[in-house]
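Example 3.2
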Amino acid sequence: MKELLQKLKENTLSMKRDKVKHVLVVIMVEGYPIGDSVLVFSGLRAISKYFNGQQFDLLTTKEHYTYLQNSPLVKNYYFDMEGVDFPAYDLIVNFSTKDIYLAEFLNGKYREGILNGSHTFGVHSLFLKKGFEHNVLFEFFSDFERYIMSEYQLEREFWGHELHMSAADREWGNEWFRSQGVKENEKVIVVLDGTSGRSKLLPMNVYFDVLRFFMTFENTRILIFDPDNLDKRSFYQQMLENEQLDQFIFVKRHGLRKDFCLLASDFVHMVFGPCTGLLHCAEGIYNTMDQKGVLSREWPMLIAYMGPTTSPDDPDKWYWWGDTHVECLYTEMDLREPDRRVVKRLAGPGHFGLPCQEFKAGALIRYLTRNHGERLREWGMLPAAPAAVAL
């Protein structure tokens, strides 16, 4: 194996960037969260731009394909190494948790051709995370890293969220809502109630008070995802006591890609929830539709509430949400009345708001009404404001 890796390193280092015409990108990352997938996989366009805007082939998993489907940068998708003709490429860019999987495959199938020089392709490793350095066997793609950290990152293009939805995907979402009885004049609020940790969620009583506020909206339906089939309807019925759930639509597990289709639907006018992966997906969906010129209406409101960064090793919240359309809310103490809370919008790096458990329903509702009441009235979700009385 050592001899093979050394020969591949020689091949890789001898390549000239402008001579690379055929690239295979390999994405196989174990246990990658939803938000990370949307944000990092969107960086594929940086690879394309690095190689003068060319398309490339992609070897990945069915799970990752959920996010990478319909990409205009990808010519061919592969899901099995056996189906890929590796010597046909100039360069393989391996974005994977462990290089050993690809190294063992190449050693088993192409060892002789690599060592005798008949196979001249190179392999770069692109996945490098603190604590995982020992998993990097191929030459790290340091030139590309310098590229995205210099002139490319200045455009912030590398970090832009991207999810490609076809017209058929969007229409599937529209038809699904119609099948649930949603009328053409009705709007849908997607309320997200799950995330990676309880500390990222509102207190239970605050969450349901905000939900009751949404229930007062006119011509409005409320969608709740139930991906683990936990019978959330029964739980919500219990928490809302005797209030009717006619406005609610509960979605059982039907696949993440179909969830994307619902988020892309023309019926959706707001997505509200914690700092979580599906809000990254919503940003990616509408950002891509907007860039392609196929968004025929206003952006929906994308609203995330959040607490402070909990670990010094965690990226700043601005890393995740800066320069996006997601309105990120945090809470602080009202200096005039310490028991009260005020809600503010994240406007730059380094915010130091209180934990999510400190949010108050009244402060959130006041913020939403003050900052979005006019738009909600334009959409017919809130009653028209009373006319001013002339004195």
